[in-house]
Amino acid sequence: MTLVLYTHPMSRGRTARWMIEEIGVPYRTEILDFGSTARAPDYLAVNPMGKVPAIRHGDTVVTETAAICAYLADAFPEAGLAPPLPDRGAYYRWLFFAAGPIEAAAANQALGVDVPADKRGMVGYGSMEAVVAAAQSAVSATPFIAGERFSAADVYVGASIAWMTQFGIFPKTPAFTAYWDRIKDRPALQRANGIDDALIAERKARADRETKGV
Fold first, then answer.
1. What is the 3-class SS of 38-88, one letter each residue?
2. Pair 75, 95 in one domain
């Protein structure tokens, strides 16, 4: 079955590409632009939210980056990126912790939303301090987020923590730094970053040429 990645090189699609590079199968890439091709009818039929990333695997469409990571780990078990089912507690727990509480806390902080202490029970993450403490505990307990082996959960959690610390949403603590150091040199990540970085450079060069009328 053909695997297609719908993405933009400056988006969460970078995480989806990393996951695809980890499974090591051929795929085709469709590059979309925010506000134009991502909002066109053809793509809205894939993702009505008009967001990237999304994948199509045969007749199956998956959106949301955490779901893409989980799906690909199951669709390509030979890559060994999902623990055996009886051992998936931490795998599911932290994969969806990153997609839920971490994402929500980061969005509220970026928007300047300060949840009053007496209202914290109404939000899924409680407080940013609680999220940071839980995340630090998770990355410190075992070498990888789900145990002794790298998994699809590390792709999503690792990318999330790298982004959070890069932009100052999470503090650059020794625990986060040590965890990222354990996964940042993976060949699949280097390949994925190389592809997306080249796309960014190509788009910038094209925009420069258009600006100069070349």
1. HHCHHHHCCCCCCCCCEEEECCEEEECHHHHHHHHHHHCHHHCCCCCHHHC
2. no
